[in-house]
Every structure is written in structure tokens, then in C-alpha cells.
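User: quick one - fold this with zinc ion bound?
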Amino acid sequence: MAVDLHIHTTVSDGADTPEEIVQKALAIGLEAIAISDHDSMSGVCPARAAARGTGLEVLPGVEMNSYYESKEIHLLGYLIDPLNEQFAVKLQQLQLDRLQRAAKIIDKLAALDLRIDLERVLEIAGGGSVGRPHIAEAMVEAGIVPNREAAFQKYIGSLGPAYVPRTRITPVEAVSLIKAAGGVPVLAHPGVSGCSEIIPELQAAGLMGLEVYHTNHKPLMVDYYLKIARDYHLIVTGGSDYHGAGHGSCNQLGRATVSYQAVEQLKSRAGNRKFLN
Ligand code: AMP
Ligand code: ZN
Ligand code: FE
Ligand code: FE
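Assistant: Sure. C-alpha cells for the protein plus zinc ion:
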């Protein structure tokens, strides 16, 4: 039986609500899923509530974005208690930073004579973690670009004139924050980030897993990262990075999965003992 450990919901930039994710996971017969929104755990409790009594296990997760030199490195944190106060405060800081950054991006667009409303962007974000995909959607609505891809390519992608990075936490800081909250830190989609050189340093800082299976990992990459996981004693995880319809290639729940053994291994390493069954 398969598990999908990388899923986004409307709480960040996914298209489906936590409840819809649970319905879809049941429909395709997944055994367990992890909700892993960007800088937020607000989707975890609603998904767990929706899955109660169904046989589907929902693990708490989060995806934290960090920076190493000019690269974006994403860290997945599993089995953190969404009610952990210290961690929740940290996530709130990161969300406030996202809000301030969205306002800065909108100012930069205005300087290019391209006008969108912050209020509309927040409405699209639906009260969760606001991100560039929400800004891209507002730009499509305003007729500035034909589609979201074009918004990233022309304006808000990392090389675009209206790009603003988020507050720079380092990958080591993200690993430490996840560990301090009793979670299990896993390096997300290394083949997408192109960051294998930092794995030794992250492992020394407490990294426990590697997302070997991912929608955008080709078979050769999988082989390469399986070997690295073995060499550094990292748990092999995987997930689709599902964002829902209209989000490029990550639009199929369960497209990348691993066996339930990965869940058992994550549980065996979690400092927080609340979600073990
Ligand atoms: P943010 O967290 O605000 O920096 O936005 C990052 C998200 O934007 C990613 O998780 C993707 O979903 C999306 N994204 C990043 N680059 C692109 C791109 N070139 N085209 C479309 N979506 C993108
Ligand atoms: Zn996303
Ligand atoms: Fe990611
Ligand atoms: Fe993701």
C-alpha cells in the first residue's frame, strides 16, 4: 500500500481544501498522506478530522522554505504537533513575512505600471500562507498576463523585475526548528533544488530523511538520491507535491509515493510522541 507524503492544500497554494484532499486520497486508495503546506500547519487538524473513521492515516507535515546562497532549499517537517506553541509562533512570523513580501511585490509591479490589489490577492489566498501563485492568479484576473506561468516568467520568478525573496532562513536553521519541535526533518525534492552538496552539512545538523521520490524526479535522479540516502543513513521518503489543477506538473495526487515503511521509519525518529498511531 502506498503513501503520499507531500501535499499542499488551500491553506497555502494548493487548489483543494484539506477535506477534498482526504476524499481524493480515499478514492485512489492511499494508506496514509501527509499534509505539507508552505509555512503553515493549519490544514493538518481539518484533514485529520475528515479522515477519522475512514482508515486513512493523516500525518502532520509542513514545508519550510530556506535559502542556501542563491538556491531555494525546501525542508519538510513531519510529525510536529500543530499545537506546539514555539513552532506555531515561528510559522506565524514566516506568514507575516509572506504578507509583507506580497505587499512589496505588488509595489514593484505598480512601479512597472501593473496594478493589482493586495486585498484581492489575500482573498485568493483564502486566509492561509500567501505566496506568489496567488499574486500570479490576481495578475491573470487583471488581464496583465495570459496565465500564471507567464506571470512567473515575466515578472515574479526569481529573475523577474518584481521578484522579492522571503526572509532568509538557512537550511540548517529550518532543520533545527523542525527538530526542536519534535519533528523529523526531510530534505524536499533535492533533484529540483539541485543541492546535493549540502546534504552532509544538513545531516550533521540533524537531517533525518531525503525525498527521493517526487513528481519531478526522473528515474536516474531517483537512483542517485537512493544511493545518497543509503550513504548518509537518511530515511527514503516520497510524495507528489500535489497542488491541484492548474499548478503545472504537480497536479496528480499519488503520482509519487513510497511504501508505509517510510511512515514507520519517520515515527521511529520523531521526538514528539503524539502521532504514533
Ligand atoms: P512562494 O512560496 O511565494 O515563493 O511561491 C513558490 C511557489 O510558486 C512554488 O511552490 C510553486 O508552486 C510556484 N512556482 C514557483 N516557480 C514557478 C513557475 N516558474 N511557474 C509556476 N509556478 C511557480
Ligand atoms: Zn506550493
Ligand atoms: Fe517545495
Ligand atoms: Fe511542495
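One thing worth noting: The radius of gyration is 18 Å.
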